[in-house]
Every structure is written in C-alpha cells, then in structure tokens.
Design goal:
Blueprint (H helix, E strand, L loop, with lengths): L2 E7 L3 E8 L5 E8 L5 E2 L1 H14 L6 E8 L5 E3 L9 E2 L7 H10 L3 H12 L8 H11 L1 H6 L2 E3 L1 H9 L9 E3 H4 L5 E2 L4 E2 L1 H8 L7 E3 L4 E4 L10 E3 L2 E2 H9 L5 E6 L3 E4 L14 E4 L5 E7 L3 H11 L3 H10 L8 E3 L16 E3 L8 H25 L6 E5 L6 H11 L3 E3 L5 H15 L13 E3 L5 H10 L8
Parallel strand pairs: 1-5, 5-14, 5-15, 9-12, 16-22, 22-23
Antiparallel strand pairs: 1-2, 2-3, 4-7, 6-8, 10-11, 13-14, 16-17, 17-19, 18-19, 20-21, 23-24
The structure holds adenosine-5'-diphosphate and 5-O-phosphono-D-xylulose.
C-alpha cells in the first residue's frame, strides 16, 4: 500500500493530505496558516508546508509528493537561488498599469488583446506573472538587476522539497506555466520573447514537465528515502483533477479567489479577456474565469454584521431571493473579472425595508454568486457545456452558498463532502507518478450532495443593473 502526499499551498493556508496511492483513501492530514497580505516572503510558505506536513505525520513514509499552489505569484531568485524580494501574489493589483502597457505595446485595444490571446491563451491582467515582472523592472530597478530566475509559488516549493538544487533544477508543469503570460498552452512552449519584452532581458525559467513526469526526489533532510516529486500544478488545475471533473462539469471554487472552470480538449483564446485559456493537470486545457472577491466577501459581511459564518448563512436564508432589491457589488479588493483593479464595493437598493441584517447577508451571498454566474456565462460563450456545477473551496461550507447557488447559476449544484480538493488533486498526481501508467489512478469521491432549485433570473438582472455603479479607490 504505497502512500502519497498532496500539498495545497494556497493564499490563506497550506494543507497537506496523505492518501493511499491506489484507492485514494485519506489517512492523515495537516494545515498551517499563511501570512496576510498580497506580498509574502516565500520562506513563510516553506515554514507552513513543513508544519502542515509535520501535523500530517511527516513525509518519511510516502512514495511521492506533489505540490499545488496559488497561481501566478512572482518568485524572483538571484544567481545563488536566494529570494530577491517578497513574492507578489495573484491578488496584488499594483501591476494593473503594467498589464495595460503590455496590451498597448502589442497594438492596443482589440488588436493588443487579440495578440496576447493568440500568443499565450490569455489577455494579461494584474494577476499574471508577466505584468509583475514589468512592474519590478520599472519600479524597483535595483532589485530587478539582481534577478536571475523567475518561478511560481508551487515551482519554488517543489524545488525546496528537492533540496534547492540550483537554478537549473527548477521545474514546473503546463497548468501553472499557462498562468505566467510567457508560455503558450496551444504550442506547449515558452514565449521567452514576451518575457524579455516585459522585463528587458532573459531570465532562467523552470523546465515544463508533463502531467506524470517526476521533478526529482525528496531531499534527505525531509525524510527523503527516494520519494519522487511530482511536477505539481496550479491550485485550480489541481482542484479539477481532485474532483475528477468530466464533460459537462463546471467547477466553481469559492476560496480567496472565486474561480469558474472546466476541462477542455482544445485551448481557449478569449480576446475579451474574461476567460483565461490555461492548461490543466491531465494534459488537456482549463478555460477559467477568476474573480478577486469570493469567500472573503462572506467574511467581510459577517464582520459588518458582528456574526459568525454559520449565523451569516442563517440570516441570508431567512431573507427572500433578491433581498427585496438590495444588491451588493462585491469588489472589496478591486476586481479582475471584470477588469476593475481600482474598484471598490457598493450596496444599492437601501430602503427602510431592506435595512436589516438578513437582507445584507443575502445581498452579500447573492452578489458574490452573481459575479461567478457572469463567469459561467463567459465560459459557456467560449464553448463550455454546463450540465452541473461542482462547488468546492472554503466558501462551499456555507449552507447559504450551497442553497442559493442553484437559484443564481440556473443549474444543479453538487457539493462533494467538505475536504481539501486542491491537495487531493496534488496527491492524485503524486499517485500517478508513483504508480506509473498511461492514465491517473481512479479515485472515487463519495458522499456528494446535490442541490437543485428553480432559477431566479431577477437576482441576476438586478445585479447586472448595479455592477457598473461603483467608485474607484482614491
Ligand atoms: N462555513 C463557512 N462559511 C463561509 N465561508 C467559510 C466557511 N468555512 C470557511 N470559509 C471561508 O473559506 C475561506 C478559505 O477557503 P480556502 O478554499 O481554503 O481558501 P484558499 O484556498 O484561497 O486559501 C476563508 O475565507 C473562510 O472564511
Ligand atoms: O489567480 C487565480 C487563478 O487564475 C487564483 O485562483 C489563485 O490561483 C489563488 O487561488 P486561491 O488561493 O483563491 O485558491
């Protein structure tokens, strides 16, 4: 019975699961928090991974380990492999002007967007690594001069697990490479000309591995024993792999980010920029829409109302669908889809009738879900078929989210049992590496619950009328 470990190094925390490679049975798990903020010293992720792995009983008895991580974060290393500055995360919007500049330099407007969609599958927004490289080159030239290599959070953690074997030892996978802005899912190759255009010179980048290729072995200091390292992947690609998303399935993940994605056989190239044309962890593609505001909208609403998350859900469910016209536009951290990096949130429709905790709770849940429903529309416009939505992430633990989602999405919503599906996807990749074979092991997800409800189109209509009515941050 070989064991495998899967790691989810996401925005708010690190989770480790240890599973039986053949059956997928969960044996042990651990977690540790990450620091707040949109720039983080990668060393904090390393410490969190080590303590989550310790809580999970250590890695000494596993045959393989894979790391899934928050996408896009810019980890810059010098010649000696030292981190040059804290990593800028996917939700750091300071590179919004750099994104606009890169589109302008490629022809501007629709032509510039088309160029990027064709070259890399996605139109750059502030989240993408390439925009952060441009920001660094322009705003911190002394730090930029020290950079010898750039990689992503999961690449760096995999490299640390291997014992930090020099810059030539950096490895990544198709899924995470596709979120950099300098790798093409359609051709499966880097566009280092674009990296150079953005940063001003070439950098070492990780070698891109196939889905079941090994990135080396676990360092002895971690209990090594010859355990293989998987290539790892981005957290959304890992979630799709973890829940075993198939044709007609759209995964909606409500974590720090809100993401809407499906597994596709052909690469996407949405010139509007709404859908990012990523690659997945199985060798296929992962068209994806991402919002900056998801589970933390519920956290913020609970704080405003002075209640816990369970009480927030009860309040939301006690108000009518549509909250009698109270609408929350949830751009609390600016927004990525639509591309409004400076936007702030807003509440519309306040009357004496709607000025109650229940109405505000309902408006928060509906506003967050409506932004994701817009993402669902963008995904179907790119050819995705939606038979059902699979709901995952911390926000899926909310009873209100589970029950209101089918009203807003207009299709059945299935919720797997509360679990760590990103870490599970990483573990399944590790099992594929450990066991070999042309296809990954089949792990069954048991105990899925289905939620169905009559769609309530008025909720989306009132949100559509309100979503543009927001102020930019000053
Ligand atoms: N019962 C719940 N109701 C609503 N939100 C919840 C609940 N439990 C956890 N969350 C939220 O889930 C979020 C963390 O989700 P997670 O998917 O782990 O995020 P990430 O992967 O971005 O680190 C937190 O913002 C937390 O408040
Ligand atoms: O930027 C994206 C997807 O493009 C985000 O989904 C990040 O990958 C962070 O994920 P979470 O920590 O919210 O799960």
């Amino acid at each position: 019975m070989p064991l495998v470990a899967g790691v989810d190094s996401s925005t708010q925390s690190c989770k480790v699961v240890i599973r039986d490679a053949e059956t997928g049975t969960l044996l042990r798990q651990g977690r540790a928090p990450h620091p707040d903020g949109t720039e983080v010293d990668p060393e904090a992720w390393w410490q969190a991974l080590r303590s989550a792995a310790d809580e999970a009983g250590g890695l000494a008895d596993v045959a393989a380990v894979s790391v899934a991580g928050q996408q896009h974060g810019m980890v810059c290393l010098d010649e000696a492999g030292r981190v040059v500055r804290p990593a800028l995360l996917w939700n750091d919007t300071r590179s919004a002007d750099a994104a606009a500049d890169l589109i302008e330099e490629a022809g501007g407007g629709a032509a510039g967007s088309r160029f990027w969609a064709e070259a890399t599958g996605s139109v750059p927004v502030a989240s993408f690594t390439i925009t952060k490289l441009r920001w660094l080159a322009r705003h911190e030239p002394e730090q930029a001069a020290r950079v010898a290599a750039v990689c992503l959070p999961h690449d760096w953690l995999t490299w640390r697990l291997a014992g930090a074997p020099g810059l030539a030892g950096l490895r990544t996978d198709r899924g995470d490479a596709s979120g950099t802005g300098y790798w093409s899912p359609a051709t499966g190759s880097y566009r280092l000309d674009l990296l150079e255009r953005a940063f001003g010179r070439q950098l070492v980048v990780p070698e891109v591995l196939g889905p079941a290729e090994s990135a080396g072995t676990l360092a002895d200091e971690l209990g090594g024993g010859g355990a293989l390292l998987g290539a790892g992947t981005g957290d959304n690609a890992a979630a799709a792999f973890g829940v075993g998303a198939g044709p007609g399935d759209v995964v909606v993940s409500i974590g720090t980010s809100g993401t809407v994605f499906s597994v596709a056989d052909v690469p996407a190239g949405d010139e509007s920029g709404a859908v990012a044309g990523f690659a997945d962890a199985s060798g296929r593609f992962l068209p994806l829409v991402c919002t900056l505001n998801a589970a933390r909208v519920l956290d913020a609403a609970a704080t405003m109302l002075g209640v816990g998350l369970d009480e927030l859900a009860e309040l939301a469910l006690s108000a009518p669908a549509g909250a009698d016209g109270l609408v929350m536009v949830p751009y609390l951290e600016g927004e990525r889809t639509p591309n409004r990096p400076l936007a702030t949130g807003a509440v519309h429709g306040l009357t004496l009738r709607t000025s109650t905790p229940a109405h505000l709770a309902r408006a928060a849940v509906e506003g967050m879900l409506c932004a994701l429903a817009d993402g669902l529309d963008a995904l179907t416009a790119q050819g995705a078929t939606v038979r059902r939505v699979i709901l995952v992430g911390g926000g899926a633990r909310s009873a209100a989210v589970r029950r209101i989602a089918p009203q807003v999405f207009g299709c059945p919503v299935v919720v797997p049992p509360a679990g760590e599906y990103v870490a599970d996807g990483a573990a399944r990749q590790a099992a594929w590496v450990a066991l070999g074979g042309a296809t990954p092991p089949q792990w069954e997800v048991k105990g899925t619950e289905e939620y169905a409800a009559e769609p309530v189109p008025a909720v989306r209509e009132q949100y559509a009328a309100a979503r543009g009515l927001v102020l930019d941050r000053r």
